[in-house]
Amino acid sequence: MPMIRETIVTTISADDRLHMAPLGLIADGERWIVAPFRPSTTLDNLTAVPFAVANHVDDVRVFAGCLTGRRDWPSVPADQVPVPRLAIALAHMELAVDHVSDDAERPRFHCRVLGHRSHAPFAGFNRAQGAVIEAAILVSRLHFLPREKIERELEYLATAVEKTAGPAEQEAWGWLLAKVQAHFANPGQ
Ligand SMILES: Cc1cc2nc3c(=O)[nH]c(=O)nc-3n(C[C@H](O)[C@H](O)[C@H](O)COP(=O)(O)O)c2cc1C
């Protein structure tokens, strides 16, 4: 299995509207593969404007926010691509789509790295950040995962949040739990 890095991918539409979404970038030698499921805005945007920015963030509220309707994170222009990067990114990579492997479910955009820049130091690992990212993945799959699996995994992840979270991780965790509760209160939504 190739290595995957969880990032916030920014893209723009043909009419220049910024979109951000958590996506796992798949390692492919010197390149990275962006693989958005159909249908998705990221897929539409990459098809229309074949550039992306991979934003490496340690504020996991961005991951949780994108999945809970909070996408208003400040952005600034990138260096070589028309797609903005997140202002709070610790580092970012500018990507140009080289070619696309089409697929009925999940096309793969093979990207060249045009540039990679650091903005702030990495402060070390925090278990609650990992737990929030895992919980965000569960939230992105609420519509098809069994309720029992979601509740069991959240219960396990909660320990890391209780023991190690700072205010940002607590806030992100709260947003995700509220979304899970709302989903089970009204699964059709
Ligand atoms: C850590 C993480 C990694 C994800 N990786 C992917 C991915 O590789 N491909 C994908 O289609 N969705 C992925 N998702 C789910 C998307 O972020 C989510 O469904 C998103 O809304 C994509 O659709 P959009 O482009 O329409 O916003 C991931 C979610 C999380 C939390």
Overall form = globular
CATH architectural name of the largest domain:
Roll
CATH superfamily (homologous) name of the largest domain: Electron Transport, Fmn-binding Protein, Chain A
Strand content: 25-35%
Enumerate the distinct ligands. Answer: flavin mononucleotide
Strand pairing plus helix content: what structural class?
A: alpha+beta
Descriptive account of the structure:
- The protein has helices at residues 41-48, 61-66, 127-140, 147-164, 167-185; strands at residues 4-12, 18-28, 31-34, 51-56, 75-76, 85-86, 91-101, 108-118.
- The chain is an alpha+beta fold and 189 residues long.
- It folds into two domains: 4-118, Pnp Oxidase, Chain A (Roll), CATH 2.30.110; 127-185, Methane Monooxygenase Hydroxylase, Chain G, domain 1, CATH 1.20.58.
- The chain has a six-stranded antiparallel barrel with strand order 1-2-3-8-7-4. A two-stranded antiparallel ribbon has the order 5-6.
- The relative contact order is 0.16.
- The site of flavin mononucleotide has 16 residues, from strand 2, helix 1 and helix 3.
Features:
binds flavin mononucleotide, 2 domains, 5 helices, Methane Monooxygenase Hydroxylase, Chain G, domain 1, 6-stranded antiparallel beta barrel, alpha+beta, Pnp Oxidase, Chain A, two-stranded antiparallel ribbon, globular, 189 residues
Fold topology:
Blueprint: E1 4-12, E2 18-28, E3 31-34, H1 41-48, E4 51-56, H2 61-66, E5 75-76, E6 85-86, E7 91-101, E8 108-118, H3 127-140, H4 147-164, H5 167-185
Helix pairs in contact: 3-4, 3-5
Bound molecules: flavin mononucleotide.
